[in-house]
Amino acid sequence: MRLIMQSTALALTALSGAVCAQTFPSKPIRIIVAFPAGGGTDIVARMIAPKLGEALGTQVVIDNRAGAQGVVGTELAAKSPPDGHTLFMGTLGNIAVNTVLYGNKLPFNIERDFAPLTQVVDVWFVQMIHPSLPAKTPRELIALAKSQPGVMNYYSSGAGGAPHLAAEMFNAMAGIRTTHVPYKGSAPGQVDLMAGQVQLGYDSIVQSLPYIKAGKLRALAVLGTKRTPILPDVPSMSDFLPGYALTNWFALVIPAATPADIRNRLHAEVVKILRSPDIKERLLGMGAEPVGSTQEQFAAFIKSEVAKWGKVIRDANIKAD
């Protein structure tokens, strides 16, 4: 009798999952972004959303939920119904780094509460300053900072985000001290940089390129290991500080209990979008390289990033603000 009941329960569970997958999507899908509109994560999410909506036959909307270094938006996504109608566009900062910075203080657990879908893009970063500063290269910036220790301010998207890590790694390797001014996201920090309220920033080319081309910001170096064709006249930071390299990334995750059939369908559609010639060209043209990893590859990548940046955070003694 017990065997019959167990078999019946398993059959009902499988049937329920199959019915759920067949009726998906049954309403609009939202992609939660844990930063304000206008930042790099938001820009990439809004590029993918209409294509995903077309593929699934429903509307896909972006839900910006900024606050607490990305914790607010991440928690909302983690506690959303696991029915495939909520995705989370996470970053190096709010998927990997916050795990190290906050640990058990987080109201969620990345590994337990989320299932990885795919790494969406690798994002090239750039060091930039307000044009009023006299520095034209990182070497000149270092000299300027050493002549005025602690006076120069840099913005970040919040403690532990990629802009914060980039700045502290630069400070440590250059032997200088600049002051951290955290914001709720990169976009408002960049507005203040253009207004001269802060003097320095490290951020994605995705959102920074229009302002650099317009002369509102001066790019000193790209933060990868080599130059990028998007900014061919801007040197690599490794030319000045050998061994320096930082590349941010954006990725999609989903509540962990989402049925496998739905996860697989969403993964397949997103990867197809990332490999489409028009999206690939647009992403590359703004400083983001499409990835489209498998779910298993992305799960392993998250673990490696937690280990890598955990060491950087401990060595630099970075604390959550």
The fraction of residues in strands falls at 15-25%
Q: Main sheet? A: 10 strands, mixed
CATH superfamily of the largest domain: Bordetella uptake gene, domain 1
Instruction: Classify the fold: give the CATH topology of the largest domain.
Output: D-Maltodextrin-Binding Protein, domain 2
Percent of residues in helices: 40-55%
Number of domains: 2
| Low-pLDDT runs | 1-6, 9-19
Which structural class best describes the helix and strand composition?
alpha/beta
Shape: globular
User: Which architecture name of the largest domain does CATH use?
Assistant: 3-Layer(aba) Sandwich
> How large, in whole angstroms, is the Cα Rg?
21 Å
How many distinct helices?
12
Mean pLDDT across every amino acid position: 90
DSSP strand count: 10
Topology pattern, helix = H, strand = E: HEHEHEHHEHEHEHEHEEHHEH
How would you describe this protein?
With 321 residues, the chain is an alpha/beta fold. It has two domains: 2-123 and 248-316, D-Maltodextrin-Binding Protein, domain 2 (3-Layer(aba) Sandwich); 124-239, Periplasmic binding protein-like II (D-Maltodextrin-Binding Protein, domain 2), CATH 3.40.190.10. Helices cover 47% and strands 19% of the residues. 42% of the residues are buried.
